[in-house]
Amino acid sequence: MSRRERLILTPEHVRIALLPAGLGSRFMALVLDSAVIVAVAGFAALLASVLLPGGAGALAGAAAGLLVTWGYHVYFEVRHQGRSPGKSLVGIRVVDGRGLPIGLEQSFVRNVVRALDFAPLGYGLGALVAQLDREGRRLGDIAADTLVIREAQSFEYDRRGPRSREFNSLRTPRVLRLLRRRVGLEEREFLAALCMRAEGLEARARFDLMEDVAKHYRRRLEIEDPRLSGENLVRGLTGILFSAQGPRETRPG
Fold it and tell me: Where in the chain are the domains?
């Protein structure tokens, strides 16, 4: 069965296509991640047996193994924009149903349901459901409204639209660090499209849209500068993302 793209329509009426990952790449990512989990859990159990006597060491090792097994995927999905080490290596990641970064609650749900997907053996049920679903989702994805997608390829943009003024008050080490960690490729595409098409919007609609988007990124990137208008903030962030240097920290020479 061919995988069907999920089309997302942004508030600015920009269409973004999310292409579901195939079962082969997902299986390879699972194998790689499982190897990491086994290695880390084994090391934790060994360390516990060395540091703690008898039954206490065995109990602590079992608890550490359980924590690693269940916490591994949640940690990477929430803190690394849906990319576990295995997923990063094969070029896939987990997003929510709107193409945005996955939240803690969604990650918890999809990984709790992983136990059902594993039944009866080796993700048999999960693989069957994913094969039947047009978007390649296993039960955990369906329950949490998440999607495993292929990483998008790089695009060339007309940089005249996203360009911000030469002096950019947002180019601080803290904002640059948060931009790298919290703003994914789909969001960058949205910001670029918004800046390039803003001139064609009616003035009031443009103001309201820019303020709404800016409010989101003020909260997301912990920006507290009240002097920046919504549009200046959006254009400033986009200018950093699409500048030749990108969101890299600048250090004094």
Answer: 16-150, 173-241
